[in-house]
Design a protein that fits this description.
mainly alpha, 2 domains, 9 helices, 2 strands, elongated
Length: 222
């Protein structure tokens, strides 16, 4: 009888140990699944990653894969195009007589007389400096914002003279002053400047480009 009770006790002890080991195994397995890449917590992490990708400056715009592969080259082309436009506009004004530059600005009838001369003489220099900075790829996003604001001012000026019934040449690429009633091209000039603004907007969103000083300086590396 004593031996039978001892055997029964040993069997009960083994059963209890096995149950404990089984419970421990299930707990470890549950922890492994929770921490593993395939665990149930992964979708939440994935959702967080997607949310993070949509944040950042201007929502971190995502391009189609074909454009994404060539984005830095496109940025270079846009930089060169915008630099040529600004450089040509600035140089055309800069090489004109000061009197003609003042006439072009005063024709808008927006600025007080004391501001006409500084703006007339300073605008061509500003355009050429911005052209050089954009071409070199120096602080591209900042320069693009400045250029974008400049085009907004140009567009607002053209809309202003059209709304007031004035007849002038915008003087955007030299010239300027009063013209005949049928010689204005305000709509064309507004859409042209909107196109130039789009180029500046591209550089605001995608400043990273080839052959840029920004790469040397470590700007826009992400």
């Amino acid at each position: 009888m004593a031996e039978s009770k001892a055997d029964s006790a040993r069997r009960s002890s083994k059963a209890t140990g096995g149950a404990s080991r089984s419970a421990g195994g299930k707990t470890a397995s549950t922890r492994a699944r929770a921490g593993s890449p395939g665990g149930k917590t992964r979708p939440a992490g994935g959702a967080t990653d997607v949310a993070e990708e949509r944040t950042g400056l201007l929502g971190r715009v995502r391009l189609p894969s074909a454009l994404q592969r060539h984005q830095q080259w496109i940025t270079l082309v846009v930089r060169v195009a915008l630099a040529v436009i600004l450089g040509y506009a600035g140089y055309a004004k800069f090489t004109e007589p000061a009197a003609l530059q003042k006439t072009a600005v005063s024709a808008y009838q927006i600025l007080p007389k004391g501001m006409v001369t500084p703006v007339a003489l300073g605008l061509p220099v500003l355009e050429m400096v911005l052209a050089a900075m954009i071409l070199l790829g120096f602080a591209t996003r900042v320069m693009a914002i400045c250029v974008g604001l400049l085009f907004v001012v140009f567009i607002a000026g053209i809309i202003s003279v059209a709304a007031r019934g004035l007849s002038i040449d915008c003087g955007c690429f030299g010239g300027g002053g009063t013209v005949g009633k049928g010689q204005t091209h305000y709509l064309r000039e507004v859409f042209r400047d909107l196109g130039f603004f789009v180029l500046a907007a591209w550089l605001m969103v995608f400043p990273r480009g080839r052959l840029a000083l920004d790469r040397v300086l470590g700007l826009y590396t992400t």
